[in-house]
Amino acid sequence: MERLQKVIANAGIASRRKAEQMILDGKVKVNGELVTELGVKVSDSDHVEVEGVELTKEIKRYFLFYKPRGVVSAVTDDKGRRVVTDFFVDIPERLYPVGRLDYETSGLLLMTNDGEFANLLMHPRHNIEKRYIARVKGIPEKDKLQKLAYGVVIDGRKTAKAKVKMRSFDKVKQKAIVEVVIHEGRNRQVRKMFESIGHPVQKLSREAYAFLDLRGLNAGERRELSHHEVRQLKSLAKFGQNPHV
Prior knowledge:
The protein is α+β, with helices and mostly antiparallel strands. It has 6 helices and 17 strands.
C-alpha cells in the first residue's frame, strides 16, 4: 500500500506536492469514488483516475541522454523551442528530466518516468557529484580558482566546496578550459560561480554525473541505464556509496 499522491507522482503525472493539490481540488478518484482528503493509501489492485484518465502502470525507464546546446530541459516549452523529450518520441512512456541543464549548456542529463527515483536524486541533501567542463573568458589566476573551490557567494548564499582544476589555457586568445566538480544543483550555478570571479563562461558542458559519463555518445544520443546502474545511483543517493553487488 502506498499513499495516493505518491502513486500519482510515480506515474509521472505531477510532482508529489502538485498531486496533493489535485486530490484536494477533487480531481482524483479511486475505484470510481472521489477522494478529496490526503492520507488515502492504495494498492496495485486499485483503479486510480486523475482528471478522468485512469493511471496506467508504466514500466520504469531510465536513460542517460547527451543534451545538445539549444535544447530546453523540460517536457514542453511555451516559446516553441526544442525540448529534451523531442529526442524520445519513439518511447511510449512519459519521460521527464532529472533536474535540468540550462538552454545553452550541453551534456549528461538523466531522463525517467520514475518520480520516486527523480526526487531521490534531486534532493539537496544527497551529495551526488557532477563534473563540468567550462571554457571561460580570460585566464583565471590560481587564487581565483581557489575561491571557487572554497565557495563563493551567488544569489546571496555561499556555494559548497568544489573541486576545481585548470585543464588548459590560451594566452593569445585569452581563454581557459576549467574542470569543476560540484554536488549542488542550484540554478545556473557554474556560470554564476565564474561570473563572480570575473571570468564569464563562454561554453559549458556536464561531462559526468556520479559514476556515469558520456563515453560512446554524441550530442542528441542516448542509452538506457542498466539495472545495476540504477541500483548504484539509488544507493549513492541514500547511503553515499555504491552497493556491493
